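Protein 1 of 2
SEQ + STRUCT:
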Amino acid sequence: MDLDQLRYFLRVADRQNFTRAAEDLSISQSALSRSIQKLEEELGQPVFERKTRSVSLTDAGTLLQARAQQVLTILEDTKAEITDDGQSGRVRVGAIPTIAPYFLPGVLRQFSKAFPKATLIVQEHTTDALLKSCTQGEIDLAILALPVPARYLEFEELFEEELLLVLPPDHPLVAKEKLRIKDVDAYPFVLLDEAHCLSDTIVTFCRQRSFQPVAVERTSQLAMVQELVSLSHGVSMIPAMARECDQSDRRVYRSFSGQKPTRTVAVVWNPYRFQSRLIHAFREHLRHSKPGAAAALG
């Protein structure tokens, strides 16, 4: 068996579907099927149980999955360690959607200036997906909001960021001089869907103050939350970094008096994977790369 066969096998095992795996790998489904068939012929037994629309691992496939991941990890880390010059190479960065478009552009731009030979690869996804990718070595680190529901990963807090109330310009709360969290308890909320940790942060903060925000609409993008608020569909809470990037006059942002809702942004990595000098340099860069609103808070 060769390395490509192992990579193809792991992709099918992860996607549980030949078609989706082939799309990820940018090869034809027939080529992928032939590769897996040759692998099974060499092993003398099937590694997948074929179903109508999906596949699942056999006992042999489960064993091969663990061993294949170990083999590829060792080879990738060995190559990275041998070629580690502290200046060139790649850094694979993951970030959640409520951080990536607001925080990462400036970070990547400044790091690229300092390390022009480095290649930066960005993946934007939900917390659960990024933690899985980090655990499996598909990315080198992830930037997300705490808490981190994962074992065997290390994290470092970067900064605390305020969550601001966002309102349409004609909302009655706009004229209120001091806003407290209890003032919004009578109004419906527009929130991100449950896959996004920001919604959990908002709901938890409200529950701790004895009220449950009623979500009238949920969406998968923070920009859509802002647009729905502009259309008077409800109110919401938005990270300060997103407010810094919002040039629209169709929304008004307010800070709560008293204890403010916040989130803690952190970087997460797998300590069992080789960490190149370039990755260490990127983490050091992150420590000094706080968005303006968050820096003022901290």
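Protein 2 of 2
SEQ + STRUCT:
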Amino acid sequence: MAEPAEKNHELTFPPEIPVPYEPAPAFAGLRRSRPAVPVRLPTGDRAWLVTRHADNRRLLADPRLSRAAAAAPGAPRARAIPLERDSMTTMDPPEHTRLRGLVMRAFTARRVERLRPRVEDHVADLLDTMARDGAPGDIVSGFARPLAITVICELLGVPKEDREGFQSWTDTYLAVTGRTPDAMREAGDRLKAFLRELVAAKRREPADDLLSELAAAEEDDRLSEAELVTLGVTLLVAGYETAANLISGAVFALLRHPDQLALLRRDRALMPRAVEELLRYVPLAVTGGTIRVAVADVELGGVVIKAGEAVLPATTSANRDAAVFDRPDGLDLTRDPNPHLAFGHGPHHCLGAQLARLELGAALAGLLARFPALRPAVDLEGISWTRAKMIRGPEALPVAW
């Protein structure tokens, strides 16, 4: 029988993360005894935090848990500014179905695969520069971040000269703590203004890129300017920030597990499995998943979440659930099957999943081939991590070879 909400003791969100490269230690206990727990968000709002794998799969696919309702005025929220109401990430069917269908026509596996030679070229160029500059080199500033920004900007068609100012806007826009609401709103406005001008330029002079293709679609299949601008911001932010931290976090994890790194060096055929395991293992997000609001009563994790209450998925916790994964806290590059939730589940499954896999695989393959003796240049325990945003990663990762 489901437990009434009022019987649960409220926790503070985000949970304490004393070891930045591990999930919050509270998750393990919550999965065992309180898989759906009420939390107080940084905004002062309340939500339910859901930690088990099975419950996260259910909530990510349940139409009663609405992203659109979470973007409505006055809805509970985790960040100081509300969610974008015209974003594909905050829409429910049928609006979401229409918009995702239009985007998927351009964001196909074939288009992503066409990027492989360019991604591999960028990897090689960045590694050439690291080798020329000499050890130690920084995986974050010298490799992961420039690779991620170059790939997503080439996919969308962002000119080279416009890429440098993007990082500071993104850092502010994604903040959970440490930035004022006004600063976050201003960063979002600047990102949108930049994309609005870029979309107008693509309509005037189309090129071979994703924004041009979407902007030039036939009228019945066309995104509105607001939809296209918001989509561009979403893809730029996710394709840059998430991909950069995924690459640097994965390299950090391999360096901390030299046995697994040696295994991948010996058997490069393991790369596809290694990519999936690193996606599961690296705790990229504080919890994982966008806040939702129930539009009808839903039972999850043994409690009834009432209409109007907010829910936070915790896929970072779900990916360490012993009910699904053998030795869940261990890194095992041979793991198969690997039903992780790093890309979510259901209607909002990540559009960029294949691109993320391609980038991570190409980055690791390039590093291992160019620097077969890759090793940390500092004590890994002393590495500083970003903590003010929902997406985490090393601030710097010095390596030698």
